[in-house]
């Protein structure tokens, strides 16, 4: 099946559109997954001819009374917020088993339901992850450096310049990448993000059947998790930070429940540790680096604003190297790199040795195991000490290191004499 996608005039194309355009004509069903507010419904609606909106109580009631209505109508059939009726997954799976024609279904989901489908859907329903807007998608800059091309190993010349500076990146961190919550008025934007966070506990978790008996305890834990942004702090240390030295700490099973619940809502977006398969690197940390779906959520959870971040303020409960703004900048870089890597059929991880002697913030892994290494620096200029881990990694990997780049807040993209690239974050694109 092949058909032309006609974008609505108001719709801003997302990086994930390319993936959907490539897959939908060849696969019977896709599941567009991600946290609430990232734009899944708008993107899915660009492709649908039949719509089933399961967050509409009236439509959901009709579907429950007659589930076969879910799959009636001309394809592609968009089933929005499918987790509101978990049985819809099995309805679609059975429909695909009966007719495997391409381009039939596009499901969107903002959570993994408590009531799991009877079948995983493996081989029938292919998941596609969607994250908040990257800097390119926000329209703040036109990228001049392609991550896809870096993954070829060609080591292309790097060029381009940007007027984006530290203040601009800080503003983007604070405002965030949720399309419906990017308000020019600061108070309105803060209120939108606060409301988003409140809805998680008040509405989204209960809808999943999760009883938060002590919301205050959960909020303390989530704030401690936000303070751990871009670190691999253990969950026990996060729990201790959340209780502030109190003797009556929540049980580990309680805090693990918080973690699992927020993972099911796609609010937590941990970056897994890199496990190399083509070399003999030893003693690598296996713990993930902690990230929220968007660094703006961490900013709001901790009650910070741009001025406070620029003055070096941030949480002290979690040890870190450098400022909290530096951690948030790394989180913003990780968010964009994951979107661009996904478009190139690659994945992103992090590298850290057991003693912390060596660390590379982002390892972009190609399908054959070869990698592009990205170091993130909250700096406009790069010195020799800023690239020492990248040089060490090249010595370990040789040709398996396709390219090495430092992402900065500086004005220009270029290659150093040692071949390592320096790229302003705003100039990195798919």
Task: Describe this entry's structure for a reader.
By secondary structure, the protein is α/β, with parallel strands linked by helices. The chain is globular and about 65 Å long. The strands form 3 sheets. Strands 7-8-9-10-12-11 form a 6-stranded mixed β-sheet, with helices on both faces. A 5-stranded parallel β-sheet has the order 2-3-4-1-5. It starts with 14 loop residues before the first helix and ends with a strand. Strand 2, helix 3 (57-65) and strand 3 form a beta-alpha-beta unit. The protein has helices at 15-23, 40-45, 57-65, 87-98, 135-138, 147-150, 166-175, 186-207, 215-227, 235-243, 252-264, 295-301, 306-310, 324-343, 388-397; strands spanning 29-33, 50-53, 77-80, 105-109, 125-129, 145-146, 347-352, 359-365, 371-376, 401-408, 414-415, 421-424, 428-429. The protein has 2 domains: 15-129, P-loop containing nucleotide triphosphate hydrolases (Rossmann fold), CATH 3.40.50; 135-429, no CATH class. Helix 1 (15-23) packs parallel to helix 14, helix 8 (186-207) packs across helix 12 and helix 9 (215-227) packs across helix 10. The chain is built from 15 helices and 13 strands. Residues 1-7 have low confidence and may be disordered.
Keywords:
430 residues, alpha/beta, Rossmann fold, 2 domains, six-stranded mixed β-sheet, five-stranded parallel β-sheet, 15 helices, globular, disordered N terminus
Outline of this structure?
Helix content is 36%, strand content 14%. With 430 residues, the chain is of the alpha/beta class.
